[in-house]
Design a protein that fits this description.
The protein has helices spanning 3-20, 24-35, 41-51, 57-83, 108-122, 136-139, 161-167, 178-187, 228-243, 284-289, 306-314, 321-324, 327-330; strands at residues 88-89, 92-93, 126-127, 133-135, 171-173, 192-201, 213-223, 248-256, 259-269, 272-282, 298-305. The protein has 333 residues and is of the alpha+beta class. A 7-stranded mixed beta sheet has the order 3-6-7-11-10-9-8, with helices on both faces. Strand 9 and strand 10 form a beta hairpin. The model has no long low-confidence stretch (mean pLDDT 92). The structure holds adenosine-5'-[phenylalaninyl-phosphate]. Residues 176, 178, 202, 204, 210-211, 214, 216, 256, 259, 262, 275-280, 301-303, 305, 307-308 line the site of adenosine-5'-[phenylalaninyl-phosphate].
């Protein structure tokens, strides 16, 4: 075999070995055998150069370098290929998109409340919070609900006997978010413009439209000259923002101890009237209880049932579906 043939033989054997190496270890063995610096087949090839005549040497040197370069390049490419993740694992094409990860969705009531906060924020109302465990002052007295009022009947409220033993005064789960009106006014001076959204508790008989735990959005605005027209405007803007332009808001005379005059608020949407809450002008006694001068300030307040809105918007026919926590139902929202 002449020198040229030996070069060709080396090159084809090296390229075959590189192609057939199935692992990094096998490829390293190929490197030692074909490209090793101290011994191995490249070294043998190099020694042929030394034996060549001075005339042949430049041509052979060039050929040697070309062959060496091609083998090194093939080796480098094979190394990259082995390090790259395979595109197919046991018949599975791992470059295809996988099944989407099923993550949870926000509860429809949470979505409704987030949207309410946003709408009321655009109308200039800040968000306030209050505790769900309340004392009688904030749940009743400051709201002008006297001691002998039927709303304070233990049978109509969830009183907490154990908590009372520790605190030394009667405590209960708040029955309305109107408690937050008092807590906010105790701590701020007018102008006041807040909403408060949260859970309230009543031992009501549970049916398709009533739950013993539900959510309300309280609204309160107090300033120099707040009127009933402001109240209706805010409620109409709110209702149309949530449901759409064809919403009508209607007031019916009513009674709440903490507002005077008081109204029931109804809303008509898609030809159906729906009672959504109570409202009215803040009673002067309430303003006095928190140290506001009723001669100087007026205000309106409202309390809306959040479930009713959410059910109407999404066509949910039974309030209990919101609390069953059946993911097949909740996943739809
Ligand atoms: C009140 O709770 C007053 N605090 C509202 C208010 C606030 C009046 C400020 C004046 C000024 P009422 O008890 O009507 O009012 O409840 C308000 C709304 O809560 C109802 O219209 C209804 O939408 C909802 N609601 C009442 N009870 C339940 C219940 N058991 N389950 C679900 N939603 C209820």
């Amino acid at each position: 075999m002449d020198v040229q043939e030996q070069f060709a033989d080396y090159e084809s054997a090296a390229l075959d070995a590189v192609r057939n190496a199935e692992s990094a270890e096998a490829l390293e063995q190929v490197r030692i055998e074909f490209l090793g610096k101290k011994k191995g087949r490249l070294k043998d090839l190099q020694s042929l150069l030394g034996k060549a005549s001075p005339e042949e040497r430049p041509e052979l040197g060039k050929r040697f370098n070309e062959v060496k370069q091609r083998v090194e390049q093939a080796w480098g490419e094979r190394k990259d290929g082995l390090e790259r993740p395979p595109e197919s694992v046991e018949g599975i094409d791992i470059t295809l998109p996988g099944n989407p990860l099923v993550i949870g969705t926000r509860h429809p009531l949470t979505q409704t409340m987030d949207e309410f906060r946003l709408i009321m924020g655009r109308l200039g109302f800040a968000v306030a919070d209050g505790p769900e465990i309340e004392d009688e002052f904030h749940n009743f007295e400051a709201l002008n609900i006297p001691h002998d009022h039927p709303a304070r009947d233990p049978l109509d409220n969830f009183y907490l006997e154990t908590a009372q033993r520790f605190s030394g005064k009667p405590l209960l789960l708040r029955s309305q978010t109107s408690t937050v009106q008092i807590r906010v006014m105790e701590q701020t001076r007018p102008p006041v413009r807040i909403v408060s959204l949260g859970r309230v508790y009543r031992p009501d008989a549970v049916d398709a439209t009533h739950s013993c735990m539900f959510h309300q959005m309280e609204g309160l605005m107090v300033d120099d000259s707040v009127t009933m027209a402001d109240l209706k405007t805010v409620l109409r803007l709110f209702a149309t923002a949530y449901l759409g332009d064809d919403v009508h808001v209607r007031f019916r005379p009513s009674f709440f101890p903490f507002t005077e005059p008081s109204v029931e608020v109804d809303m008509r949407w898609k030809d159906d009237w729906l009672e959504i809450g109570g409202a009215g002008m803040v009673d002067p006694n309430v303003l006095s209880a928190v140290g506001y001068d009723p001669e100087q300030y007026t205000g309106f307040a409202f309390g809306l049932g959040i479930e009713r809105f959410c059910m109407r918007r999404h066509g949910i026919d039974d309030i209990r579906r919101l609390f069953d926590n059946d993911v097949r139902f909740l996943r739809q929202f």
